[in-house]
Amino acid sequence: MFEQFKDWYENRHEYAKKWKERTGGKVIGTFCTYVPEEILYAADILPVRILGSHEPQDVSEPHIFAMFCPFCRDCLAQGLKGRFDYLDGITIAQSCLHIRQTFTSWDLHIPVDFTYYLTHPMHIQSPRAIPYLTEELKEFKKAVEEWTGKEITEEDLKRGIEIMNTNRRLLQQVYELRKQPNPPLTGLEAMIMVVSSQMVDKREHNKALVELLEKLPSRSLDEPGERLMILGSEDDDTKFIAMVEDLGSRIVIDEHCTGTRYFYEEVNTNGDALASIAERYVKRIPCPSKDWPERTRVDHIVKLAKEYDIQGAIVMQMKFCDPHELDTPAIKKALENDVGVPTIFLEFDVTVPIGQFKTRVEAFLEILREEDLF
Ligand code: SF4
Fold first, then answer.
1. Could you identify the atom of ligand 1 that is nearest to the CA of residue 68?
2. What is the number of domains present in the chain?
3. Residue at 84 is within a domain
4. Which domain holds residue 35?
5. Ligand 1 in contact with 279 (CB < 6 A)?
6. Is there a contact between 195 and 236 (Cβ–Cβ < 8 Å)?
7. 15 touches 117 (CB < 8 A)
8. Each residue of 103-159: pLDDT tens digit?
9. CATH number (domain holding residue 94)
């Protein structure tokens, strides 16, 4: 049922190369989920998220300090190794400083035809954030038009919004099924499904999601063990997720930029398209780098914990990821003290010590099982 998504996830580069051959279109690498993909789809460009490979590497050191987040260094390594050599361009919308360094190093050392740094407001809680971003999106649209030599009309933008919104809605429908006492999909399948949506043409992904939604409700898996939430820094570490679920638990919800933070909330389809896109990216569930002065993410995480009836949460943080590190104490406190959900904190690197993590997760699940007895 999830073979297509797995194939896209594992063969992302082959997919993009074939897409170019097939359509004659351009492909842009995106560094963060704040990039407004609606505008790229409006211009018939394929946005592809640049992610790491989870393999040890020694090529990024001359460009990014070792104390930058390992995910960012892994991403740059993919570019330096030529794995994204089919990209016509790269773009980023400002979020955290680590990933911006990856963009800057890529821009300096890996030739592409088009690069664009989108100034996305950091103070998203300011009343000026939406008008500010609307003006920035106008500049971005103009740059894309100049590069492709093709005007992006209001109709094109509405089409781009529709492609993105449909994908968000369908992913949300699949996630709704995860609220069931025995969800018909695993956490690993959910992760691969969402991450693959960041790599392939959303129109194809939407078709696959429609087919999946026809079959999924009648699928029956073994009874789930402990219902878990995973949350924190960027995470597409499928080996780790598989290990956690192989221990008998089931991941039923996430709060990652490779999960719900990516696809929650649609763009309003009434009114000016660019202003509506700006509104969505300002009001979406924020990356912690933008979630201030009020910490809104904590309440959102507690809400997810209740909605998905979780028994435990794995709080993950990429080593040196200061945005998430700053949020961790407040999240742990809210989950443990306010809703009585035990948490375990794990620090991730490009590769994780699976044996050591397995022991820690086993001990955590043991605690949850003992709590269940009383
Ligand atoms: S938010 Fe954290 S994980 Fe994401 S790019 Fe920044 S430092 Fe890395």
1. 7
2. 1
3. yes
4. 9-150
5. no
6. yes
7. no
8. 999 999 999 999 999 999 999 999 999 999 999 999 999 999 999 999 999 999 999
9. 3.40.50.11890
